[in-house]
Write a structure and sequence with these properties.
mainly alpha, binds zinc ion, globular, single chain, 592 residues, 2 domains, 3-stranded mixed β-sheet
Length: 592
Amino acid sequence: MKYLAFLLVAAILFCCSCGNESTNQNVNQSADSNMDQSFDKYKEALIENFWLLYPGQASGLGYHKHDSVLVIPDEVFHKKEIDFANQNLDSLKKFDSVKLSSTNKTDFYIMENALISLLFNAKEFREYEWNPAAYNVGGTFAEILQSKHASNPDKLRSLYLRMANIPAYYAAAKKIIKNPTAEHTDLGIRQNRGGLDVFNVMLMDSLKKSGMGAHESQMIEARIHESAKAIEDYAFWLEKEVKPSLKPETARNFRIGKDLYEKKFRHDIVSRFTAEEIYNKALQRKDEIQADMLKITAEIFTKYFPGVRVAGGFTKEHTKILIDEISKKHVHRDSFQVAIEKQIPELTKFISDKNLLYMDPSKPLVVRKEPAYMAGVAGASISSPGPYDKEGNTYYNVGSLAGYTAEGAESYLREYNHYILQVLNIHEAIPGHYAQLVYSNQSPSPVKSIFGNGAMIEGWAVYTERMMLENGYGNNEPEMWLMYNKWHLRAVCNTIIDYSIQVLGMKKEEVIKFLEEDAFQQKQEAENKWRRAALTQVQLTSYFTGYTEIYELREELKSKKGDKFNLKEFHEKFLSYGSAPVQYIRELMLEE
Ligand code: ZN
Ligand code: ZN
């Protein structure tokens, strides 16, 4: 249906432009500014109502109007969700998407998809019945407490109100959970117990420092204890009643199977391909990369192991040995952050020298040591100001190695060795996530910042890794390409194992073996990946799916435009649509 509508637009525009050669604004010709104005109003109202339904998500994004509200996740609530989605799908029909500006057109499809997805989750996927870890109040309390939008006592006052519903929240959870998976039950126990610190430690500390009067203080403290008790009761119930009742023969399988997987893929990833098609593309890409790695191995192996004779040709084993050897080239643990800071201007200079992308010099990226509350996550990450904090800085958080043993630091530094560290900076910062963010902030769309497409965002970062090397970043050194391939294989294999586990029933031992042998991963990394793939579905495919669609779009436009194709223009145009699904951006770019 959607695709047909776009074909129609393309046909109409083609006719219009015949008689009007002087303008190339064809896309906007059919845009109707009245329609756009009323659509803008509608979007605003929809988001307001969305936050009434999901106040916790609003708080997490920095919108603090509903901080004091904790929604009770019972049947009445799920009925409300379904009504909300149906009503808004009806209202959306009043707008003719063809007549909207391109920003609103993509917003239209993103909202439509979000509503359909909401219906799918509430009616069909029903994770709230089988995932006990879906119930956990800790995270949002921590987020509100850490935000700087209000004074400590004011935040404590709204959290006091928010705590009132915690016992009812967990009572509703106990009522609605039916035949959960054993894996998600364990996760629910662990995460809820982990979240107890938010109450017993964080909230208590903050209360002690608040300087509030004795009476108010005591009321809040009593409620903190009540909340902690409700959480512990829930974890205890999961552990002592639910867990023992789950028998391997009858308990729900954590694997969601082909039908649900395809549907979830369609809603969460929004690709023009099916999950199965993407899985097959990933298998093919894996073979390509491995062949390339073998070629490089043959080329440089004796440079690292002079005099070694290889009988019977090179194999993946040799590639693995070579990777281990090259990984020894890395920065000193004390200069990890400095090395990253130094690279940012170099990357900026490279994309400018090579004419790859314009970067606004007035928006520098701030590199900082990872704040304590994030400690233990990835080596580096981008923190961007949310849609409600436009003036906030964008930070590049770099993990500190201070707490590592000598051995731990060495292993970490080999993982983020001289070559991989550069690919990481490309991915996270320039021209990856950070650059994409700067562009998407230029045409601010609350819809895209709230319902932004993860596959487009991750896909862009993965795409830029290859694009940079193709344009000569790293001087085409074989070591650089080898390490890039290893890094890229991770994204490719994320797709392969997610589909293999959730749809094809791949077992844990097979997954670990595959990641160690085919993706050159360390055992610990492979184990962590298994856990993530078993407990989540589809998200792991976002990196490779987005990458594939962007790369294919570029190649398609290249062959269409021939000599007129300009890489910098392509990148800037692509990013100008904001974090919309690549599928929609593609339709708009091909229209022109
Ligand atoms: Zn070392
Ligand atoms: Zn990323």
